[in-house]
Predict the 3D structure of the following.
Amino acid sequence: MATIQFSRGMDEDSVPEVRLTRSKSGDQGTATFVFENPKALSSTSNQEITGMYMIDEEGEILTREVKAKFINGQPAGLEALYLMKSVAEWDRFMRFMERYSEANGLGFSKA
């Protein structure tokens, strides 16, 4: 089971839009996650957002690059950026995304 958390122990129910970029050499890349109305920002959540944790059977991938989006003073979304600085990090991330997409019905399309 692959899941995303913004606070340890609290799975995020909102399924993000994910955009990937990769360098021509293939040794670096970025993944941008956009969550609309995530549970982590709901009025019932009293947990502090400490990062974005991508958790699966291999372990945990962590990014601290998380920004909240507000509309008219109300929380509306989260954007997280994960930087991959090696082929091994890219491959590990792609294995996580395969598991996460299977669990959440995501599809992949090349731009």
